[in-house]
Amino acid sequence: MSDTTARRPLRTVVIAVQAVGAIVLALIGIWVAGFGSFNETLLRVGTYALAAAIATVTVAAVRFDGPKWGRWLWALDIALLAGLALSVTRYFEIGTALETGLYFFSKQDIWVGVIGLIVLLEATRRAFGLPLVIVCLLTLGYALYGDSLPWIFRHGGYSLQQVMQVVWYSFDGVFGGPLSVVVTLILVYIVFGALLEGIGAGPVLLKFAFAATGRFRGGPAHAAIAASGVFGTMSGSVSGNVVGTGVMTIPMIIRRGFPPRYAGGVEAAASAGGQFMPPIMGAVAFIMSDVTGIPYLTICIAALLPALFYYVSLFVAVHLEAVRRGIEPLPKSEIPRIERSDWWMALCFVIPLAVMVTVLLSGRSAAMAGFLAVPIAVVLGFILNPELRRKPMMLLEALRQGGQASAQILVAVASIGIVIGVMNMTGLGLRFAGVIRVIAGDSLFLALVMMMLGSLVLGMGMPTVPAYLIVILVMGPAIEHMGVPMLIAHLFVVYYGVLSAITPPVAIAAFAAAPIARANPVLIGIDACRVALIGFVIPFALVYNPSLSLVIGFDWVSFGWICLRLSLAIWMFSTGFTGVSSARLGMAQRALRLALGFSMLVPDIWVELGATALTLALVAHDTIRRERPVAA
C-alpha cells in the first residue's frame, strides 16, 4: 500500500475538521452580529482560539497534497494545537479575576502566555507569511529591550511579566478592541460576501460588468475595474480580491491585446481601490469608527467622492492605453447578453444591499444591517438559482470559505494586538509624531510626505485592516497634531496603507496577480502604480481641500473648485503617462501635462489658477482635434 493511500483517511478527517471549524466560525459571526454575546471574554478569546485552530489545521490539510513529510511536522501541528488549548484554557480560568484587576500573576501564567504568543505568530505566518510576523517580533523585542536603544526609541524598560500582562492578559493587546470589532461587525460582512459568491450572484455581477463595458475600447479591463470595485468593498484582502476576480478578468484583458503585466496591474489597482470604496471599505470603515468614535455613515460619506475619483482615473487610464495600442471595442457578438434570469439573479445582490442601506439610514447598527442581509441573500438564492436548489451543499461550501477568510482576518488582527499593546505601553507613536513635527517644522506638506512614505513602508505585505491599524498607531498622532481633522487624517493613512499593496518591491497584490498574468510581479506593481497614480495624490487633495469629504468644512465654491481641478488632473496624468490624447504626444508634451497635473493641486491659489487655465486650454485643444488612430 502506497504512502498516499495510507494517508487518505487521515487527510479526509483533517479536511473535514477544518471545514466544520470554518462553518462554525461563519455561523458565530452571523449569530453575534444579530444577537450579540453575553460574555466578552468568550467572544474575544473563544473566537480567536477557533480561528487560530483553523489556520493551523488548514496548513496541515494542504500538506497531504504535497510530498511526504517527516513525522516532526505532524508533531509540530499537534504541539501548536496543544499550546493553543493550554493558553486559551488558562485565560478562561483566570478571566474573571483579570476583569476585576485582583489577580497576581505567577511564573507559570507568564510562560503560558509566551506559549500563546508563539502559537499566534506561527498561525499568522501560516496565514500571511513572514512580513507581519517580523513586525510583531520586532515590536516585542522593542518592548523588552527598548531601554537600551538611543534617541526617541528609548523607553523606561519593561519586564517579560509586564509585557505579557499587557499584550496577552488584557483587553489592550491581542484580545483588544479591534478583535472585538472584527467578531461583532466584520465577520458577518465577510460571510455575506462569500455567500453572494456561493449562491451565484458573483458571476452574474461580473457578467453585468462585461456587458456594461464591452462597448468601450478597454473592454475586459474596464469590466475588471467595475467588478473589483464591487467585490473589493466587501473583501478585507486586496490579494484575495485579485485572485477572486482576476482569474476571469486578467486572461480576458490579455486576449484583448493588453500586455500581461498591464493586465495584472489593472486588476491589482482596481482591487486595491475596493478597500476604500463605501459602503463596507473592506471592513476598514468599522474599525475606523471604533478607533475614532466617528459614526460609520459619516466615514462612508467622507470616503465616497475620493473613491469615485480614483475609479474614474482608472477608467480614463485604461481607455487611453487602449487607444494607444489601437484596441477597438469588443465586437457586438462577443459582448455578453443579459438574460432575464441574470436580471433576477442580480436581485440577490441588489435587495440585500438595499436592506443594508435602509437599516443603516434608520439608525440601526452596521452589525444588524449585515445580519439581516445574510438570510435575505440566502432565501433569494434558493428562490432564483435552480442550481442552488439542486445542490444545497453549495451553501455550506460558501460558509466554509467565509469562515476560512474570517479566520485569517481574526489571526491577523490578533497579531496586530501585539503592536497595539506595545505602542500603548511605550508611547512610541506620540514620540514619533513629535519627531515629525520637529523635522517638518511648520510645513504641513513635508509632514504629509513623511507620513505617506512611512505609511507605504509600514503597510507593505499586510492585509488592509492590520496595515491600517499599524500605520495609524505610528503615524496618526503626527498628522493630527498638524491640525488635520481626525477623519481626514485616518482616511489619509488608509489610502497609503492600502496602496502599499501595489507599491514595489513588496506589492502583495502584484504578487497575487503574477501567477494568473504570468508576468513579473515587480513590473505588474509598476504598472499598477502608474494606472493608480491619482490614488497617491487624492489624500493630499483631501487634506488641503476638506470640502471633498462632504462632511468637514463643506463649501460649494471650494467643493466645485477641487472637483474641477481633480478631474483635469486625472486627464493630464493619464494622457501624460500613456502619451496619447487626440494624437500621440512627444516627451516634452507628456512632461508638461504631468507638471500641470501636479501644479493644479498645489495649495497656492495663483499656481492653481495658472495651471488650471493652461490645462483648460490643452483640453480645448484636445477636444477640437478629431481623434484618429494612434496605434503603435
Automatic annotation (TrEMBL):
InterPro entries reported in the protein's UniProt record: DctM, TRAP_DctM-Dct_fused
- By its UniProt entry, which Pfam families does this protein fall under? DctM (PF06808)
Q: Where in the cell is it found?
A: Cell inner membrane
Query: What UniProt keywords are attached to this protein's entry?
Result: Cell inner membrane, Cell membrane, Membrane, Transmembrane, Transmembrane helix, Transport
Membrane topology term reads: Multi-pass membrane protein
Keyword Metal-binding among record annotations: no
According to the record, the segments passing through the membrane are 12-33, 45-62, 74-92, 104-121, 128-146, 166-192, 262-288, 294-322, 343-361, 367-384, 405-425, 445-475, 487-516, 522-544, 556-574, 594-619
Please give the superkingdom of this protein's source: Bacteria
Give yes or no: UniProt keyword S-adenosyl-L-methionine.
no
All copies of the TRAP C4-dicarboxylate transport system permease DctM subunit domain together span: 116-554
Functional note: Part of the tripartite ATP-independent periplasmic (TRAP) transport system.
Annotated NCBIfam families: TRAP_fused
Q: What is this protein called?
A: TRAP transporter fused permease subunit
